Amino acid sequence: MSLFASLAALAWAHFRPEARLLPAREIARGQRWLLHHFNAGGVQHGVLAWTVGALAPALAVGLLVVLAGSLFDILGWALEVIALYLLFGFRRASFKAASIARALAAEHMAIAREHLLAWNPELLVGDSADDLIRQTLEETIKSALTTLFGILFWYWLGGIAGAVLYTLSHACLDQWHGEEAFSSFPRQVVYWLNWLPARALGFSFAIVGNFQDAAECWRSQAASWGQSGRDGNEGVILAAGAGALGVRLGGVLHPGASELPRPDLGMDEMPGLESIDAGVAMVWRSALLWLSVAGLLWLGSL
Fold it and tell me: Looking at the 3D structure of the chain, how many domains does it have?
């Protein structure tokens, strides 16, 4: 892994976030092709499809970078930068959060709901402004893990192959979510790939935000998110993030005339529109923290 490749890719993604759209669409189309041709209703078919759609490409990219680096160091480094640039996606996630915030500020509730559904089609979107603000902030925090910190973590731990495996495993789960048996193995893989990065990110939120509140919310509330049938890793970063920001996440949503109960996370204060910008800023402060620590470790190795 290269700290400077990470910095270069992050800087590139910051100023040119739109170029990731084409490879993301092609990856999604490939995962849907695997679903159509490999899904015979068994768990073993999902394992085979994940191997073809995630593990094999990750190993191939890792091997390509190693071979290129053995010829010319700068060529291997450049390939890593390109690959990371195509994997990072939080800059676009922050744009989506900002577009929802602008729609809410203009009281265009229908447009805000459309943007939120386009961001995550699986969401049961609430009707009130409070619901939409909470859900937007939740999606922002969740995206920080899947489009930035998880990629950085596995790149630094397992090289470019680890970063590609992380992203492609999430892509498998996103495209196969309606098939319980077929997606069961990718779901377990994604859970364990997220386990350590989620806790490192939760700790980072505590450091760059309100440490005491973040730690207390993490300790007392995160488990309830997993016990309610949701992703326990999401519970860690949402509870820590809500505590660090001093706001409330989770809670009851009101889609239409119904109610969707969810565990309460964070503090008593309801988030406002400014909380969305604060959440994005917290994510970038955490990224700077990770890069600073990595830089110190690199300096210590000289």
Answer: 1
pLDDT at 27 over 80: yes
**Residue in the structure block whose two tokens are 């995962």:** 31
* Structure tokens belonging to residue 174: 């996103």
pLDDT of the residue at 124: 84
Phi, psi values for residue 250, rounded to 5°: 65, -145
What amino acid is encoded at 198 in this protein? A
Instruction: Kindly calculate the radius of gyration of the chain based on its CA atoms and give it in whole angstroms.
Output: 19
Residue 19 has pLDDT above 80, yes or no: no
Cα 108 from Cα 129, distance rounded (Å): 10
* Range(s) of the domain holding residue 265: 3-301
Give the residue among 43, 32, 30, 52 at the shortest CA–CA distance from 183.
43
Inter-residue long-range contacts of 46-50, CB under 8 Å, 24+ positions, other chains counted: 46/176, 46/179, 46/181, 46/182, 46/183, 46/184, 46/185, 46/186, 47/185, 49/172, 49/176, 49/182, 50/169, 50/172, 50/185, 50/186, 50/189
How far, in Å, CA of 261 to CA of 249, rounded?
12
111 — phi, psi (to 5°)?
-65, -40
Residues 6+ apart with CB under 8 A from 134: 126, 248, 249, 250, 251, 253, 270, 271
**112-139: b (≥16 Cβ within 10 Å) or e:** bbebbeebeeeeebbeeebbbbbbbbbb
Its pTM stands at: 0.93
